[in-house]
Amino acid sequence: MGNGKKRAELKISGMHCATCAVTIEDAVKSLGTDMEVQVNFGNDTAVVEFDPGKVSLCRIEDEIHGAGYEVIHQEIIIRVGGMMCATCVETIEKALSSLPGVILARVNLATEKAYLTYNPSVSSVEDMKVKIEAAGYQYLGIAEDLSPEAEEQARQRDLSDKFRRFSIGFAVSIPLFILMFVPLPVPMHTLSWFMLLVSTPVFFYVAYPIFRAALMALRNRTLNMDVMYAMGTGVAYGASVLGTLGIVLTHDFMFYDTAIMLASFLILGRYLEARAKGRTSEAIRKLVGLRPRTALVLREGEETEISIEDVVTGDLVIVKPGGKIPVDGEVMEGESYVDESMITGEPIPILKSKGSRVIGGTLNTNSIFTFRTERVGKDTVLAQIISLVEEAQATKPPVQRIADVAVSYFIPVVLIIAIGAFALWYFLLGSTLLFALTALISVLVVACPCALGLATPTAVTVGVGRGAELGILIRNGEALEIADHLTTVIFDKTGTLTRGKPAVTDLVAAGIDDRTLLSLTASVERNATHPLAEAMVRKAEELKVPIEPSGDFTTFGGKGVAARVLGEEVLVGNRILFAEKSVEIPTEIDQQIITFEEGGKTAVLVSVAGRIAGIIAIADTVKETTPEAISILKEMGLSVAMITGDNRRTAEAVGQQVGISKVIAEVLPEDKEREVKSLQGAGAVVAFVGDGINDAPALARADVGIAIGSGTDVAIESGDIVLIKDDLIDAAAAIQLSRKVMSRIKQNIFWAFAYNALLIPLAAGILYPFTGYTFSPVLAAFAMAASSVTVVSLSLLLKRYIPPAKKGRS
Asked: What pTM value is reported for the model?
């Protein structure tokens, strides 16, 4: 394969016949005559030979997608060291994106990780390592291959190195600074040579990381903050050397102490920033720390302790009191109370007995039990939560684009201002060279896009981590920003506002007895999976009513079901179905239906052989916290609505119980999405809250889909925000958390812009003509260090944030 061509093997989903293979081949070949493609329908792969200089892998995949198929990618998270500011993020993203096999590269400055979607047949992890190192940064390995201990050790080594550098720098620069003001019986010429000899090794030791990074940036033809800082400290040191040697400059230009102090303050700032950034990912480290290292399994009748990586699905695992449950599974023997607070936030241990589900990472408190493993490795709930939180922390809310645009122009603008300030003071206003150089150095050192680069990722990282601690899983940064602008929250009724476990409350038979009515109904409904059907079958089993065989089972979406039982056609459903089937409803039966509906009950009609046979009333109790959650959302200024397939009377009765006046009733499951779309068309920004099972289209259509889980059974993929606990208070808390995080991001961005807008002109000497005040380079370096630390510290305050909805709750 010559002429610079690359060979890519693509995994395709969506092919169902040989024609699909031809369609894909034609789509790819449409990109150029030199494209070679072979699609194998048997193993769902396409092998493409292409020239990356003419067409990108992304473009090829777009064509395949346009033809109606999907390409399955591989994802990887890489730890990157040496990043200092937003321009570092841009440099690494560009370097990695230049690889022909990389589809998407996102870098998070706060967590120091690169998140890549790529094709391993075109670009390898080794290629990524080479690109990262060539750009001047450190490849620290694949994130999941690094243990928390290894990560912490690497972080501590980096902090220790920075601490040594700035400590030595201050230990030398402060005495040198004092020497400049103490009258000594030594000629200035001798003193300057002494300062040169003492300062040179210290300056290069302290400033080495800055100059190294600047050199790598210039080699890659990019301008970053290290280039500016190297210029600032380099000018200070260079001027001092020229002054000592008497070349162009005089002994008045003694900046040795300033040069070392500048470099020391820069390294101090990075030390404090690194320490603070390390704390932004504590939530993830806590979740990872929940994973036990070993498991006690029963194999061939003997108890064996094995590594957690060696546990396989179907293993019998023994958990003793005080031990952590290693993976997800089902209890087979014994019973005990399990503390699930670290996952669900529920403080009270839950009794687990035979048939109960247990979740990896939770704590067995008081007894011994055995469970069979069902989900291991990446499939466990804990692993999915960790993955979701990490992915969410890597995303950028749209507001970050403001900072990204600003950073792209920042360094060229600052360089122009610095050189302009020097030229203005020295050439136009006739100031001394010393003063003009001081202004140049101050501008180069004080300017800081780092605060802009850290404003969003630190807040998102801490906020998403805090959400996970509260049992609120936020899937991406965009969900945070949209949740901040919500106007309307729509709730599904069954299983969301209510417990989702309806029970039969009344039987009203017509022409037959109650037991026969229940028997016929249960015989039909045992074929269905709807909660109302399960309630009727459950009631029949409780009363030991016979459930007969049935045939010709038919469903009428959202309206009811029918089947043949004991030779008769039995119809079970609502008024709409009975009207369609022309089954007459007598006045007395109709009045009873109205009475049930006004009481918040669902009336299920039953007919046998075309004649009404009775009514079964079913009620679903409202969750305890539902009215309070609705009240909180209204206080937040949000419009609240309920959507249900129930008839209007029943729906309005439930709405009245929970405090919802806007009720959208008699909506078929497939039409819920249309109702959401209708509200959006009227200008509403909509959140849909549902159980993530029957509400998938509506959750996807909503601006923010909020899916409610039930403790260990969490549908991770079902919404933009996933609530681990089955508690609507958390829906309100999720919106409050989103608002708080977005508020903090805006504060951070404002601070970062305000800092630069105020101090850059000050450093350039704007106040000097009016007040005689100049901003010294040392003070500029201190301010620069303080700016990044301030932004990170503001984000860290989110770690202690408790949404008002959850205050006073455990």
From this structure: 0.78
Structural contact between residues 699 and 688, judged by C-beta atoms closer than 8 angstroms: yes
Question: Which listed residue (492, 646, 671, 720) is catalytic?
Answer: 492
Contact 168, 202 (CB under 8 A): yes
* Strands 488-492, 686-690: pairing kind: parallel
* DSSP code string of 307-369: EGGG--TT-EEEE-TTPBP-SEEEEEEE-EEEE-HHHH---S-EEE-TT-EE-TT-EE-S--E
Q: Judging by beta carbons within 10 Å of its beta carbon (0-12, 13-18, 19+), is residue 149 exposed, middle or buried?
A: exposed
Q: What is the number of H-type helices and E-type strands within the chain?
A: 26, 30
Residue from 672, 221, 266, 283 nearest 450 by CA: 266
Tens of pLDDT, residue by residue over 453-483, are: 788 888 988 999 899 888 898 988 889 999 9
Dihedral of CA atoms 200, 203, 205, 211 in degrees, nearest 10, equals -110
Q: What is the pLDDT of residue 559?
A: 85
Chain segment 732-779, per-residue pLDDT in tens: 999 999 999 999 999 999 998 899 899 999 999 999 999 988 888 888
Residue 801, both tokens: 């944030």
Kindly state the DSSP code that residue 377 receives in the 8-state scheme.
G
Please identify which residue in the block is written with the tokens 């249309």. Answer: 674
b/e map 362-397, b = 16+ CB within 10 Å: bbbeeeebbbebbbbeeebbbbbbbebbbbbbbbbb
> What is the pLDDT averaged over residues 293-303?
88
CA distances to 109, 183, 422, 537, 573 from 511, in Å: 74, 117, 102, 21, 18
Please indicate whether residue 404 is annotated as part of the active site. no
Kindly write down the DSSP assignment for every residue of 202-219, as one continuous string: HHHHHHHHHHHHHHHHHH
User: Is the Cβ–Cβ distance between 438 and 257 less than 8 Å?
Assistant: no
Written as six digits, the tokens of 79 are: 């730890």
The terminus-to-terminus CA distance of the chain in angstroms comes to 64
What integer pLDDT is reported at residue 718 of this predicted model?
A: 64
List Cα–Cα distances, 211 to 220, 257, 311, in angstroms: 14, 18, 49
Question: So what's the pLDDT on residue 328?
Answer: 93
- One DSSP character per residue, 609-620 reads TTEEEEEEEEE-
Cβ-in-10-Å burial (0-12, 13-18, 19+) of 750 comes to exposed
- Could you give phi then psi for residue 604, rounded to 5 degrees? -100, 120
- Bridge partners of 10, per DSSP, are 46
Burial 179-190 (b: 16+ CB within 10 A, else e): beeeeeeeeeee
Tens of pLDDT along 524-546?
998 887 778 889 999 999 999 99
Q: Are 805 and 633 in contact (CB under 8 A)?
A: no
Query: φ and ψ at 4, to 5 degrees?
Result: 70, 15
β partners of residue 550: 565
> Of all helices (H) and strands (E), which one includes residue 605?
strand 602-608
DSSP 301-315: TEEEEEEGGG--TT-
Q: Count the neighbouring beta carbons within 10 Å of the beta carbon of residue 446.
A: 28
Cβ atoms of 230 and 214 within 8 Å: the answer is yes
* Nearest to 264, CA basis, from 445, 45, 426: 445
DSSP 623: P
Residue that wins the pLDDT comparison between 350 and 408:
350
Cβ atoms of residues 267 and 208 within 8 Å: no
List pLDDT tens digits, range 321-334. Answer: 999 999 999 999 99
Write the DSSP assignment of 544-583 as a string of letters: T-----EEEEEEETTTEEEEEETTEEEEEE-HHHHHHTT-
Tokens of 335: 């019973």
The helix/strand/coil state of 464 is helix
